[in-house]
Amino acid sequence: MKFFFTILILLIYNDILAQGSDANAILEKIKKSKEDTNRVLAYVEYGQYLENRNLDSAAKYYLKAEALSSKLDYPTGKFKFRSNYTYILNLQGKFEQALRLNNESLEIARDMKSPLNVGKSLANIAASYTYMGNFTNAIKFYQQSADQFEKLDQKTFLPRLYVNIGTAFEHANLFNKSLIYKQKALRLARPMNDSLQLADILTNLGGCLFNLKKYEQSQTYYLEGLNVAQKIGSDIFVIQAYGGLCRTYRGLKKLDKAREFGEKGLELARETGNVFLEMECLRALMFVAEDSNQPELSAKYTGEALKIAEENEMTDHLVELYEDYATDLARRNNYKAAYNYLLKYAILNDSIQGIDVQKQLQELDTRYLTAQKEKQIITLEKEKQTRNTLIYGLAAGLIVLALISALVYRNITIRKQIAENEVLQLQQEKQLVATNSILKGQEEERTRVARDLHDGLGGLLSGIKLTLNSVKGNVILPEESAMTFTRALTQLDGAISEMRRVAHSMMPETLVRFGLIEALSDFCEGISSSGQLRVTMQDFGFDKRLDSSVEIVLYRIVQELLNNVLKYAEATEAQVQLTRVGNNVSVTVEDNGKGFDVKSLDQNKGAGIRNVQARVDYLNGRLDIQSTPEEGTSVLIEIVV
């Protein structure tokens, strides 16, 4: 189950640095100042000092700043109030109210014509959407904010912004994408000497690694984050580290240490009034109790966490809690209530963390990264143009000389290449003409020999058979001579059949008279009837016959391929497919035999494959052989007629 123990830090006025200020000095400033803008700023500064110690007290001073800012019509004070107060509202689970104030702060920043404040407001709006479970809008506003700060070269805000973007992706189950942004944030933050920001990023990274089940790495970051947070007295990140260590030690099967840190975090969260972190600590302890075989205690923690999430409409956390509470109800045999909570979980989970939302987030991130790369390319192009102008100005003569030399060399090289290509082309054409002549001569000779065998020798043998049959009926022979005579007639029948088979193999009569499809059908049926191989044939689009020379070559190709199957493939089945669409003809021969490594053809092509390739080249076609050991072979021939 995923874990979101992260606080989205709003981009408030870091120049005040109230976290390290002296409380008495700030209070003295408030006491001595008049009811003017200086007192507004002092109220905000003291609120920032208190927010990691007591949220209610911090909220009190922020509200004082707002009241005085409204009285003085002081835009900066109004903006600072909203930027800081919405942080407290989020920790209290009042997300809708925080979003409304963040939208107001954006309008104030635009009226002030302050690009920096606009960037902060955009990031704060994104944080509100993240808490509310609207991750598509969250990423969109974070990217707008990042663009704003990069335009202003305000790199101090980028680490925290990248953490928040990573958190939004984390809530959408895109943990690896989240890790990229959070690691990027840590690299930028370490040299900045901002302990509060560093504590935030370290604990966030710990949570991200926990979700990726990298518990040892998660523990390292949480312990470092806890150390930093304790040094600066930041209760929020101390609680966040405690809760994270509770989860991590549970993952490492160290339940006693997990319980110790979880209880510390819960106690501190309740002391500071931080309901958000209180809920997360309750959930962490819930899992520890479950692993410790304490179902009643686990159910107690779950119920308390669910109550907080429902009261504060923490949409994303409700998803997990509905599932957890359904499990607890089922343990107590309350299956009807468990089913209802599982139904709530399914509906809410689909609306927040479904595939479509993840896809939208991925697309937003891709567009953002693409825009960033385009900006980098434009910047690099400008720098390149500046450098090139300087180089061209200083070395114009050398460049001209180099260009002339390059052109001469290029001209010589091109002429040489053209000559080589022409020689190669002539050789190829010569080879093709020779091959075509050989193939044509072979087929003409096959046709002549087949005709002579069938019409000449075949007719002669048939005449001899008829003569002998007539003699047999008119001559009385001894029994032994009669048997010899009969045996001679049988051998004569065999000779006639063999002569016809040879003539048919050299040039099938069916091919000449009825065409390619009929001839191949007879050939496939002949192989199937032998019992060695079952061959099926399919054809499409052959309403008209092809040119006789093309039909003969295609017949020889299929004949050669099927003979190869019979000799080498050890197949039981083969399939022949012929398709004609317009002027495009394709032939496919497939078998279920033992196959082979196609790469071996590069070193050693057999005579059969060479013959097939030569015939395909004769037709100006394309040959494609696909085969894998033990998975059969498929040969595709494509030609244009």
Automatic annotation (TrEMBL):
One of its GO terms (molecular function) is protein dimerization activity. The keyword Transferase applies. GO terms for cellular component: membrane. PROSITE patterns: HIS_KIN. Residues 409-436 form a coiled coil. The lineage of its organism: Bacteria, Pseudomonadati, Bacteroidota, Cytophagia, Cytophagales. SUPFAM superfamilies: ATPase domain of HSP90 chaperone/DNA topoisomerase II/histidine kinase, TPR-like. CDD domains: HATPase_UhpB-NarQ-NarX-like. The keyword Kinase applies. Residues 554-641 form the Histidine kinase domain. Gene3D superfamilies: 1.20.5.1930, Histidine kinase-like ATPase, C-terminal domain, Tetratricopeptide repeat domain. InterPro entries: HATPase_C_sf, HATPase_dom, His_kinase_dom, Sensor_HK_TwoCompSys, Sig_transdc_His_kin_sub3_dim/P, TPR-like_helical_dom_sf, TPR_rpt. The chain crosses the membrane at residues 390-409. This is Tetratricopeptide repeat protein. Pfam families: HATPase_c, HisKA_3, TPR_12. It comes from the Bacteria. Keywords: Coiled coil, Kinase, Membrane, Transferase, Transmembrane, Transmembrane helix, Two-component regulatory system.
